[in-house]
Amino acid sequence: MNRVRRLPLDVWFEPLIILVIGIGYFLWYRSATFTATEEASLSWANLQTTILEHIKLTVVATVIVVVVAIPLGIALTRPGIKRFEPLAVNIANIGQAAPAVGLLVLFTFWLGTGFRTAIVGLVVYAVLPILQNTIVGLRQVDQRTIEASRGIGFSGARTLFQVELPLAVPVILNGVRTALVILVGTATLSTFIGATSLGTLITTGVTLFLPKLLVSGAILVGLLALIIDWLGRLVELAATPRGIS
Fold first, then answer.
1. Where are the alpha helices (H) located in the chain, listed in sequence order?
2. How far is C-alpha 131 from the geometric centre of its chain's CA atoms?
3. Which residue from 94, 230, 111, 125 is spatially nearest to 188, judged by alpha carbons?
4. Whole-model pTM above 0.90?
5. How do residues 13-34 score in pLDDT, each as one tens digit?
């Protein structure tokens, strides 16, 4: 019981919000009257495929961003190439500065429509939070701690993996959580370039003037974002070394 009380507020409060919204939506869904189009779009078989495709878009894009941004962030904190940090961050910032729909459309002219193009657009859009947090997390490690590890005989690589990265984990994982939430929301726009996502429900609802379908899509995207954010928080909590808050 004491262990539960020591958990951060968001770790147990966020699931309560998810539960309340989920139950509320389920009760509304059971009592609402839908048109034939809404029933077809919100049938479990169709909804399951749509949700899984949305998750697939988010997960694949996140894995690629993590594989690219974290090593790049580490490299940009090393003495040899840290002078390129402003350039790399500014390039990554282009993805955040550009409108997401415009970015996806631009990539469509280059790569065509579909899943692959959506992934490329999402990766470009979500690089900045992870890259920036990796740099910030490593830069905030106390220089005296690094010098002490080198003083007891640790190599540069061993200092990085056993001292710097563990101390930077909370900040880096916070960037990953931010990117995940951004990707869940932005993935809805992939429907405009032919990739299946929960955005299909929203765009269909808007196009055909079906507010219940629009509301369903928005609620499901919100629930998915909350669930992924909470799971990310659990990973962040589990991966953070003891004694680091």
1. 2-6, 9-31, 36-41, 44-75, 85-97, 100-111, 115-139, 143-151, 156-159, 165-186, 199-207, 211-239
2. 13
3. 125
4. no
5. 888 999 999 999 999 998 988 8
